[in-house]
Specification:
- The protein is about 40% helix and about 10% strand.
- The protein has an eleven-stranded mixed beta sheet with strand order 1-3-2-4-6-5-10-11-9-7-8, sandwiched between helices.
- The longest helix has 27 residues.
- The protein is globular, with a radius of gyration of 21 Å.
- The chain starts with a helix and ends in a 26-residue tail after the last helix.
Length: about 475
């Protein structure tokens, strides 16, 4: 395969690659080889992948070339975050001590992607225990934002977001508990879909305690990609992830909108001017596409963010704090200490009250979404943070929580959300926006996101930004670097 053809393949999106393979223009082996070569050339600068399945990916591609197309992702490479099981590979959660926790079966979402013909090409980096909005850990080190190495790639699905942004894979699979898909997507200039909890089955073949209540209520897997079309295809595949290990999986289907639904544009008061300008451009694109648009914040954003923080802090202290201190990185523990100081743990009565109050807040949002079925807003009120910002103490963690309050709200309320690129700042940093909608109405948000994508194209995949200190790693300090 010549160099120009190789280049063309790693720049293609997943749907295009599947079509080229299906029509016989290229082989799955050529596609996989192009991405393996891209990983070899680029990942030493980025640190997005922790494991590359070179030989098994080649074998899977060869098998795909011998057989009939298995589904809409036949022969397409994908990466998988390190907290989702890939059979025969450790599910480390970014923790060195879990390096021998080898999964015996795929997670349901991984199995669904394989049934659709996808080829798992690697595992991706994440913060230990998926507990920071930055990607770094003692096992693999930091992942670099390919646009701007001294800024964070986000977390916790930062490895997948960075890999997609530079063409190491057209499609990543991550998870979202408090912005873990959407923050990295926004910070790395790619798209993501946080699904409704229950939409995609969740299970692990590894022993361990049951997930905490908030994890069961707030978290869900979802895809990252460079196009909304790829998100939509991956979403359709993931909807068929039924697994008897997960009794909470719900076989719901979207209903098509007969008219363009109204959109509430959540601008807030303290938003960065460049993020605000990007949001207004997106609102204008939707308005021109026939969506009724109004500037209006949804209800109780501050209260929702505070409730989220208190509930999560309580569960961390009760279930995971000792383990984090024993095997977690210094950065993880610095961030967690500040978050717990910001949101002191509740006693049992307070925890039960806060969890019960969630129903009241969901009811308020349900009424709001009945009138404005889409909420368009920032993923973060701020541009990507400097590396180490989240290690600067309680004031800076409080700033991050406030900036991510709309993102946190979607998780707390169990709502699906699509992140789509919306422009590039004057400093050369990507800006992402999100569209939040009602439970099990993912397609509504995807359809609107495609309108924004058409109006705000993003030049991905990119080559990593030139900087002599690419693998920037911040140590815990009393102020940001």
């Amino acid at each position: 395969m010549n160099a120009s053809r190789d280049s063309a393949l790693w720049t293609r999106d997943a749907v295009s690659l599947a079509a080229l393979i299906a029509e016989g223009t290229v082989t799955a082996s050529e596609v996989v080889e192009a991405h393996l070569d891209r990983i070899e050339r680029v990942d030493p600068e980025i640190g997005a992948l922790t494991t590359v399945f070179t030989e098994t990916a080649r074998a899977a591609a060869a098998a795909a070339d011998r057989g009939r197309p298995a589904g809409p992702l036949h022969g397409v490479p994908v990466t998988v975050k390190n907290n989702l099981d890939v059979a025969g590979s450790p599910t480390t959660w970014g923790v060195a001590a879990l390096g021998q926790a080898v999964a015996t079966a795929d997670a349901p979402a991984v199995a669904a992607l394989r049934r659709a013909g996808a080829i798992v090409i690697g595992r991706t980096n994440m913060p230990d225990f998926a507990t920071r909005w930055h990607t770094d850990n003692d096992a693999a080190g930091p992942t670099v934002n390919p646009w701007y190495p001294t800024r964070s790639p986000g977390g916790s699905s930062g490895g997948d977001a960075a890999a997609v942004a530079v063409g190491m894979t057209p499609l990543g699979l991550g998870t979202d508990f408090g912005g873990s898909l959407r923050v990295p997507a926004a910070f790395c200039g790619v798209a993501s879909l946080g699904t409704t909890p229950g939409r995609v089955a969740v299970a692990s073949s590894l022993p361990g305690p049951a997930p905490a209540p908030t994890n069961q209520l707030f978290a869900a897997p979802g895809p990252l990609a460079r196009t909304v079309r790829d998100l939509t295809t991956a979403y359709e595949v993931l909807c068929d992830s039924a697994d008897r290990r997960d009794p909470a999986w719900i076989p719901a289907r979207d209903t098509a909108d007969t008219v363009r639904p109204a959109v509430a544009v959540a601008l807030g008061a303290d938003i960065d001017p460049q993020v605000r300008a990007a949001l207004l451009r997106c609102a204008d694109a939707l308005d021109r596409a026939g969506y009724p648009v109004a500037e209006l914040d949804p209800p109780q954003l501050g209260e929702v963010a505070a409730d989220y923080g208190r509930l999560v802090s309580t569960e961390v202290v009760v279930q995971r704090r000792d383990a984090m201190r024993q095997v977690g990185s210094a950065g993880l523990n610095t961030f967690v200490d500040a978050a717990i100081e910001l949101f002191p743990p509740l006693d049992l009565a307070g925890y039960m009250s806060a969890l019960g109050e969630r129903r009241t807040r969901r009811a308020a949002w349900s009424e709001f979404l009945a009138e404005y079925p889409i909420v368009l807003g920032p993923v973060s009120d701020e541009l990507p943070w400097p590396v180490g910002y989240d290690l600067g103490g309680i004031a800076q963690v409080a700033t991050m929580y406030a900036a991510h309050r709309l993102t946190i709200a979607a998780n707390y309320l169990g709502l699906p959300a699509v992140t789509v690129p919306a422009g590039i700042s004057a400093e050369g940093l990507p800006i992402g926006v999100q569209l939040i909608t009602a439970p099990f109405a993912e397609r509504r948000a995807l359809t609107a996101a495609a309108r924004i994508e058409a109006a705000c194209p993003m030049p991905t995949p990119i080559s990593p930004a030139a900087d002599p200190a690419r693998r920037t790693r911040a140590e815990p300090t009393s102020s940001s670097r």
